[in-house]
Amino acid sequence: MLSNNDGCAVARSQEAKVLGVKMGEPWFQMQALAKKHSIIALSSNYTLYADMSNRMMTILGKHSPSQEVYSIDECFLSLNGFNTDLTAYGQAIRRQVKCWTGLPVCIGIGPTKTLAKLANHLAKKQPEWAGVCDLGKLPEYTLNDLLERIEVGEVWGVGRRIREKLARLGINTALDLKQADVAFIGGYFSIVTQRTVMELQGVSLLQLEEITPARQQIMCSRSFGLPVTQLADLQQAIISYMTRAAEKLRRQSSLCRAVHVFIRTSPFRQKDAQYSQGLTVTLPKATCDTLKLSQTGLWGLKRIYRSGYRYAKAGVILMDLAPTEMRQASLFMDHVADKSTRQLMQTIDSINQRMGKDAVFLAGAGMEKRWQMKQGNKTPCYTTEWNELAVVRC
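User: That's the sequence. What structure does it adopt?
Assistant: Structure tokens below.
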């Protein structure tokens, strides 16, 4: 799978890894290798990914009273109180997900979230476990033997900098980290790393978050498929990005009190003149109105735009967010207009949710978006577009 604008490899099958395709390697540098081994590279298809993720998470959520969706392809389920063979239960879940969606999944089971993540890692690496690993079934010496084979950077929450610092302390494997003294770790790292050690020791400190906390900022940004030079094209992009960001804002029942808009050229086109600028605009009144947010974004764009540059990216950030219920009344507020605006946004969201993205959109976003992301090898949206449904011919 390729990144935005078919730039570089961001996901690889095991076969592609064996052939030498490296994570993050630019696609144009792999042409000879791809031709030699008939490697297929597909463009990012976010609509398809989101829909399949929602289907998978819905299925998984039926198998536990508590579910935390951690990312587009990961979630935690609570199995506390389940009086059953958890390995067999995990296999049943895998079969159902595979049957109903066609997606292969691996399941890791452990007494803590950190150990469950490691169990999932092991389930992928050990073919004999057929995709399900329950660390609770393993004797301590077997578990320690497995942890000794896992590089410490594979532990959830251990990034590159922490890994390098741990290595200087002689901690190189997951077992080393598990057996480290918590107080000793606290002398060099934050409480987060201490918790990781205790989680590896079987002490559950990270609880399931069944309700995803509201974001503190919402960003929407994309690289352009082609360099953009005209203000009109940048305006289309800013309105489109602001529309997406405002939808997310309303979805989490928040209001925005400041908007940041930015544009920049590509640092990789060294022959081009370089320019990068952004501007934060404070709103007089917190809002989630796409129209007002777009107007604010365009106001900021006009002040940072400079002609004569080949722009490669633009974006917006909604900042200083607050819950809708904290909306403060103003002496000069037009309550009738405010209520009408909220009803309009709810209606637009409802139509787009029922009829598909951009069934209703702002005219300023344009019909022909020459700046849109390049997706030369995108698979059809099999599950969300009627005209792209898979067809079986007998």
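The domain at 218-365 is CATH 3.30.1490.100 (Dna Ligase; domain 1).
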